[in-house]
Amino acid sequence: MNAFMLYRQEKYPVKTKEDLVTGSKKAAEDWKKMSEDDKKPYVDKYNELREIYKVAYEKWYEVYGKNYEALKKVYE
Is Thylakoid among the key words of this record (predicted)? Predict the structure, then answer.
Protein backbone atom coordinates (compact mmCIF):
# COMPACT_ATOMS: atom_id res chain seq x y z
CA MET A 1 0.00 0.00 0.00
CA ASN A 2 1.18 3.52 -0.70
CA ALA A 3 -0.02 7.06 0.01
CA PHE A 4 -2.16 7.17 -3.14
CA MET A 5 -3.90 3.94 -2.20
CA LEU A 6 -4.73 5.34 1.23
CA TYR A 7 -6.25 8.40 -0.46
CA ARG A 8 -8.16 6.24 -2.91
CA GLN A 9 -9.49 4.03 -0.14
CA GLU A 10 -10.72 7.02 1.87
CA LYS A 11 -12.23 9.12 -0.91
CA TYR A 12 -13.57 6.44 -3.27
CA PRO A 13 -14.59 3.34 -1.30
CA VAL A 14 -15.13 0.20 -3.36
CA LYS A 15 -18.56 -1.41 -3.15
CA THR A 16 -18.80 -2.89 -6.63
CA LYS A 17 -16.45 -3.91 -9.40
CA GLU A 18 -17.42 -0.75 -11.31
CA ASP A 19 -16.49 1.36 -8.27
CA LEU A 20 -13.01 -0.09 -8.43
CA VAL A 21 -12.46 1.08 -12.01
CA THR A 22 -14.23 4.44 -11.94
CA GLY A 23 -13.02 5.28 -8.45
CA SER A 24 -9.44 4.52 -9.37
CA LYS A 25 -9.61 6.74 -12.44
CA LYS A 26 -11.16 9.62 -10.50
CA ALA A 27 -8.72 9.21 -7.63
CA ALA A 28 -5.75 9.21 -10.01
CA GLU A 29 -6.97 12.39 -11.69
CA ASP A 30 -7.49 14.08 -8.31
CA TRP A 31 -4.13 12.88 -6.96
CA LYS A 32 -2.23 14.33 -9.92
CA LYS A 33 -3.83 17.73 -9.31
CA MET A 34 -3.21 17.75 -5.56
CA SER A 35 -0.43 19.84 -4.05
CA GLU A 36 2.26 18.26 -1.91
CA ASP A 37 0.61 19.85 1.13
CA ASP A 38 -2.70 18.18 0.26
CA LYS A 39 -0.96 14.83 -0.16
CA LYS A 40 1.02 15.18 3.07
CA PRO A 41 -1.53 13.57 5.43
CA TYR A 42 -1.62 10.47 3.24
CA VAL A 43 2.16 10.34 2.90
CA ASP A 44 2.53 10.73 6.67
CA LYS A 45 -0.01 7.98 7.32
CA TYR A 46 1.77 5.71 4.84
CA ASN A 47 5.12 6.33 6.56
CA GLU A 48 3.55 5.60 9.94
CA LEU A 49 2.01 2.34 8.70
CA ARG A 50 5.27 1.34 7.04
CA GLU A 51 7.17 1.74 10.32
CA ILE A 52 4.57 -0.30 12.19
CA TYR A 53 4.86 -3.03 9.56
CA LYS A 54 8.67 -3.03 9.74
CA VAL A 55 8.62 -3.53 13.51
CA ALA A 56 5.97 -6.24 13.29
CA TYR A 57 7.87 -8.02 10.51
CA GLU A 58 11.12 -7.96 12.48
CA LYS A 59 9.35 -9.49 15.49
CA TRP A 60 7.69 -12.10 13.27
CA TYR A 61 10.98 -12.96 11.60
CA GLU A 62 12.73 -13.41 14.95
CA VAL A 63 10.13 -16.01 15.91
CA TYR A 64 9.22 -17.68 12.60
CA GLY A 65 11.76 -16.55 10.04
CA LYS A 66 14.11 -19.52 10.06
CA ASN A 67 11.22 -21.98 9.93
CA TYR A 68 9.67 -20.00 7.10
CA GLU A 69 12.90 -20.06 5.09
CA ALA A 70 13.18 -23.83 5.61
CA LEU A 71 9.56 -24.42 4.60
CA LYS A 72 9.95 -22.21 1.56
CA LYS A 73 12.82 -24.41 0.34
CA VAL A 74 10.70 -27.54 0.76
CA TYR A 75 7.90 -26.15 -1.40
CA GLU A 76 10.03 -24.58 -4.15
Answer: no
